[in-house]
Amino acid sequence: MHPTLARPHAWDVSLEQAQWIQTNYRQKVIFSPLPIEQQNSLTAVAAADWADRVFAVAVTVDLDRPYLEIRLGTATTTFPYRTGYLAFHQGPAILQAIEQLNRVGNVIIVKGHGLAHPRRFGLASHLGVLLDIPTIGYAQALLPHNELQPSPNPLVFWVTDAEGAVGVAVYTDRVKKPCILSIGHRVDLESLLAFIHLWMKDHRQPAPLRLARSFLRQQLRNMKKE
After folding, report:
1. Would 184 disulfide with which of 116, 122, 135, 193, CB 3.0-4.6 Å?
2. pLDDT over 80 (residue 174)
């Protein structure tokens, strides 16, 4: 599968325009189940700043057959980093990395929040709506407006806001802080539980996302040496 931009918008916008885009595009988020058998092909995305540019890495991995693809995207920053507006800062570089892939997985996981965002439209939801593909947000910290509620699984807690559940917090053991998976687009809470079972059995971070972040760090180290 190789998605195209379904709902493009400008990236070089004012803060007020960015707020308008988030408020209006969040209404396009779709909540739907993504069965576990459709989650065996995954694209993971990570991004970071270097000078006046953002670099992003997209990695596609299959569980059912040996398939690995890594692509690098980059874009000059036109929107400075602001809390709650990560998509406007990293979005162009991430989309470039994804567009270079020969094949995009059935679901994309991105380092950033989805619905677990003050306006319920974080980076994962933003990318999902733009590409109209299932997306999941991954983060290592709970935002102040979110709370944890117990689930039937003692190592999994529901992440909630004033409107309801937006994701899950996963404890790989009782010592470490949880990682946060949040609904992005075209997934639901049960989809997140299936994702945990499929991709997070042995580690608090899915292997494709670890690979994307590791490759990105190596690229940045290489540039610093130049």
Report:
1. 135
2. no
